[in-house]
Amino acid sequence: MNSEEILRPLEGIRVLELGNYIAAPTAGRLLADFGAEVIKVERPRTGDELRNWRLYAGDTSMLYRTVNRNKKSIVVDLRTDAGRAVILDLVRHCDVLLENFRPGTLEKWGMGPEVLSEIKPDLVITRISAFGQTGPLADRPGFAAVAEAVGGFRELVGDPDRPPVRVGVSIGDSIAGLYAAFGSVTALLQRQLIGSLPMVNRVVDVALNESMLSMMESLIPDYLAYGVRRERVGGRMEGIAPSNAYPCSDGTSVIIAGNADAIFQRYMRTIERPDLADDPGLTTNHGRWDRREELDAAITDWTRRRPRDEVLGILEAAGVPCGPIYTAADIVDDEQYRARNMIQHFAVDVGEDEPKQVGFPGIVPVLGGRSLPIRNVGPDLGEHTREILGGLLGRTEAEIDELLEVVS
Question: Structural domains in the chain?
Answer without folding.
Answer: 3-215+358-407 (3.40.50.10540), 243-328 (3.30.1540.10)
